[in-house]
Structure formats: structure tokens, C-alpha cells
Amino acid sequence: MSLDDYGGGQGPQPDVLVVTTNDVPGYRVQQVLGEVFGLTVRSRHLGSQIGAGLKSMIGGELKGLTKTLVQTRNQAMERLVEQARARGANGVLMFRFDVTEAADVGTEVCAYGTAVVLARE
User: Fold this and answer.
1) Does domain 14-120 have CATH number 3.30.930.10?
2) Which of these, 10, 15, 34, 95, has the minimum number of CB atoms within 10 Å of its CB?
3) Of residues 65 and 114, which shows the higher confidence score?
């Protein structure tokens, strides 16, 4: 089952649709395959920690840390999609992120959800 026509947008459409909702309008859940997740742990870079410390004193966005967190979340999501695809899913419902500190040396980011097979209604 391809989701090529989902959303009607331009450009390539995902072969695994990831949503934060319980369902997808116009589709029914044909099969629930179970939980899938993508996990990554990033260590802190000493230079970015010093820069973040200085920036926090004067205020403003911590752009280096923001960029790192975006990259980390994207990597966790890519791993989630790979796991869903490997299980034969074409959708992930109830997608969420969980972020925790990992023993004061880095940040753990976990993307998780429920892998499903979606079919057009």
C-alpha cells in the first residue's frame, strides 16, 4: 500500500506516514504491528557548553544547541521510520518524542509510536 496520493502536496510523499494522532482521515488501520522506536544519545561538546553558559547569562536563543537538538530529533525519527518500514508498516500513529539526560554526559532522544498498515477507505 503506497501513500503517494496522501495530502495532495507537491514533491515526493513519504512511504511511511508519521502522525501524532490516533487515526488518519480517509484511511483505516488494517493491521497494528506494535511499538516502534528510534533512539539516539548525543554527548555534549565542551565548546557548545561554554558558549551556552555565556549566552544564558545575557539571554537569547542557544543556536548551536538548537541545531544539535534538531539533528538529534531527526536522527531518532529516521531510525523510527526505518524500524517501521522493516516491520512492513506504512504508517506510525501516536508519534511522540521523549528527551532525557543521560548520566550527565549527553542527551537521549527517543522517537516512538505505533506501527500500522493503513488502507484507503
Assistant:
1) no
2) 10
3) 114
